[in-house]
Amino acid sequence: MALDWSDLRLVLAVARAGGFAEAGRRVGLDPSTVYRRVTALERSLGVPLFERTAGGRVPSAAGAAFVATAEAMEREIERLDHRLEGRGGRLEGSVRVTAPDDLAARLLLPLLAAFRRREPGIRLELVLDNRSVSLTRREADIALRAGRQPPESAVGRRIGAIGWAAYAVPALLGRAPEAVDWVGWEEGLGAPAVARRLGETAPPARVVWRSNSLLNQWQAAEAGVGAAFLPCLLGEASAALGRFLPRDPALDGELWLLTHGELRRSPRVRALMDFLYEGLRAEAPALAGPEP
Hints:
It is a single chain. By secondary structure, the chain is of the alpha/beta class. Helices cover 41% and strands 23% of the residues. 32% of the residues are buried.
């Protein structure tokens, strides 16, 4: 049978995402459409491409061969795209950016909108994900990522320190930490140092709200659900919150602007990286927060 790139791209997306729903989100298709197309491909081939496991869908032996072929084609398409790109005076094409939802809301959206006005030929895709979307597997072209050390496969620039403190609405300020309710990360998520500090500060029964989103934790704290450890970028910007506990340098993280090594030569990726770096560096003092 004749295969086309769209078939290979879908198989690659499911393999990278570990399931049909997440694959559909990443390629802009309904999950049921992804499922139908992949199962139709399996029927036409007469072999299963994926196996169901406790952790999600993983490629079968035949699926692994498809994935390897799709990755090779993807690399060749990117190389051709990079060679052709920028030969005219205008940048064109798409760039996929990933960031946690809180950083996107506070920092990225205004910068991306300004870049679009400057480079109208660039189409932007923003993936809001609090997990580490893979640059190596080309799930994104550029990542705004918090962490002490970027992956070895990534290249980029350090934006600055991310300061943390505990914040709460005025009605809770001045009370003992063990005497108030708290908002925190869903178990197993978030910066380990912050999760440990919350465990040291509040009895487990006092953590009454858990979320996989810092933006949601910020909103819950503003609504008076409880105190929360938040990046100073969020806490200091809120008119509804005050510092419940001082900033703790032991909780500091770092913010990095990253891309994959093979993409740094792409004119459109390089242009957006440079633009974002300048804009983000201007926000470094707000990221670091006040002196302890």
